[in-house]
Design a protein that fits this description.
Elements lengths: L8 E2 L5 E3 L2 E2 H8 L3 E5 H18 L3 E6 L6 H9 L3 E4 L2 H9 L7 E3 L6 H9 L4 E4 L2 H14 L3 E8 L21 E2 L4 H9 L5 E7 L10 H21 L5 E3 L17 H19 L5 E4 L3 H4 L3 E13 L3 E6 L8 H5 L5 E3 L9 E6 L8 E8 L7 E4 L20 E6 L2 E6 L4 H5 L7
The protein binds pyridoxal-5'-phosphate and lysine.
Lysine binds next to loops.
Keywords: Amino-acid biosynthesis, Decarboxylase, Lyase, Lysine biosynthesis, Pyridoxal phosphate
Cofactor: pyridoxal 5'-phosphate
Organism: Virgibacillus byunsanensis
């Protein structure tokens, strides 16, 4: 049996499987809460994007947005699949260097890159910096001069597109902290600073309209606006872009309400639109870059929890508490994100009632799932929550001094711990005495 809407099986014991392994065995072996990834799904996701570009005969880079889940093992898998990498901080860049990710395939993002971050990027000869603001341009110029180096630069622009997603994860709208506004003269001003520069190799534009988006029309509208500007710059300055980075944001299924498009559909829509514009403006086809994060890691991961207290409030609801919560999955509290889950040791049992899954943090808002249909639950059962592979571990915290959970990769029936569970010593390791 395959679990409804999620790419996992149930074994003969009626237990949830991931990558051919019994989740109950994994929970016993590594403890809970536990993030488990099916690496074959990560690879499948990478290939879906890469192969579509290949089939369309378009030069492309698919950069994994490592903010979704960055760890040395994860970046090694992405490297094996031939992807490029989007990093947004020194920590993400450091992780990439530790994973020996090819530096020429690393792209640095960020709306407030520090001098130190830019220095690290330039000293390590990363492939590209996606410039976000005027302050950053000044710093890059100074650094390149000092180091007597050149670097590829893309300009991040804000096209004024409102994507259909949660307000906190829209990024292409006019009122955004990201990028140069495409319409109010700021992008033009930045262009004049970047184009024909002694050290800066200005390669083209970047645009990311938001995250968890299920349709192609806003991506296409954003691309239309980029080309409107590119046409002006071609006419006024003879500028022709080598690269267009159209961002990430491709939606995944968390619950049955989500209807994600197959990944090739996004790529096909973007490529077909770019091809039309290229013909219209009469330029060569630029390289197309994209930056999926969630679409690579999201559905490959699940989180296993042990169920503890069961509290029934007659006529109100039943709270089932687990041994994690917003410390390992902030998304429900931050974005009211919805998830689905199953009792992993009772998957085949008929569901008899609806319960709400509470985290154990000292916050009423620490609820992982509202109104989940479940079979009869007992303390000690294992709950599996689906699609926690993106923005789960990467947004985890030590709130209430919880140690961070372990991460296990499973592939071809073999499990391997790739991030250790933190100890209480890890939690206090930076604390200094005041006695
Ligand atoms: C610039 C940029 N690129 C890529 C991403 C990855 O987004 P997603 O994980 O939705 O693909 C983000 C996050 O929204 C982003 O800000
Ligand atoms: N952290 C967000 C998406 C990242 C937005 C990055 N610009 C989420 O969990 O949905």
């Amino acid at each position: 049996m395959i679990i409804d809407h999620h790419p996992f099986n149930v074994n003969d014991k009626g237990n949830l499987e991931i990558g051919g392994l019994d989740t109950i065995d994994l929970a016993q072996k590594y403890g809970t809460p536990l993030y488990v990834y099916d690496v074959s799904i990560i690879r499948e996701n990478c290939r879906a994007f890469v192969n579509t570009f290949r089939e369309l005969g378009v030069n492309a880079q698919v950069a994994y947005a490592s903010k979704a889940f960055s760890s040395i093992a994860m970046l090694q898998v992405v490297k094996q699949e031939g992807l490029s990498l989007d990093v947004v901080s020194e920590g993400e860049l450091f992780t990439a260097l530790q994973a020996e990710f090819p530096v020429e395939k690393i792209h640095l993002h960020g709306n407030n890159k520090s001098f130190h971050e830019l220095t690290m990027a330039i000293e390590n000869n990363i492939g590209c910096i996606v410039v976000d603001n005027f302050y950053e341009i000044q710093m890059i110029e100074k650094l390149l001069q000092e180091h007597n180096k050149e670097i590829d630069i893309l300009m991040r622009v804000t096209p004024g597109i409102i994507s259909k997603t949660h307000q906190y994860i829209m990024t292409g709208n006019e009122d955004s902290k990201f990028g140069f506004n495409l319409h109010n003269g700021q992008a033009d001003e930045a262009f004049k600073l970047l184009y024909n520069h002694d050290y800066i190799r200005f390669k083209g534009l970047h645009c990311h309209i938001g995250s968890q988006i299920f349709e192609t029309d806003r991506f296409v509208s954003a691309t239309d606006l980029l080309f409107k500007k590119l046409k002006e710059w071609k006419n006024d300055y003879g500028f022709v872009p080598d690269i267009l980075n159209l961002g990430g944001g491709f939606g995944i299924r968390y619950t049955s309400e989500d209807k994600p498009l197959p990944y090739n559909k996004y790529v096909e829509a973007l490529v077909s639109n770019v091809k039309q514009h290229v013909e219209d403006v009469n330029i060569q086809m630029p390289e197309i870059w994209i930056e999926p994060g969630r679409a690579i890691a999201g559905n490959a991961g699940i989180t296993l929890y042990t169920i503890g207290s069961i509290k029934k409030i007659p006529g109100v609801r039943e709270y089932i508490s687990v041994d994690g919560g917003l410390t390992d999955n902030l998304r429900p509290a931050l974005y009211q994100a919805k998830y689905e889950g199953v009792v992993a040791n009772k998957v085949n049992q008929p569901t008899t009632n609806e319960v709400s899954i509470a985290g154990k943090c000292c916050e009423s808002g620490d609820m992982l799932i509202w109104d989940l249909p479940v079979p009869k639950i007992e303390s000690g059962d294992i709950l599996a929550v689906f699609s926690t592979g993106a923005y789960g571990y990467s947004m985890s915290s030590h709130y209430n001094r919880f140690p961070k959970a372990a991460v296990v990769f499973v592939e071809d029936g073999v499990d391997k711990q790739v991030v250790q569970r933190e100890t209480f010593q890890d939690v206090v390791k930076n604390d200094l005495s005041y006695e």
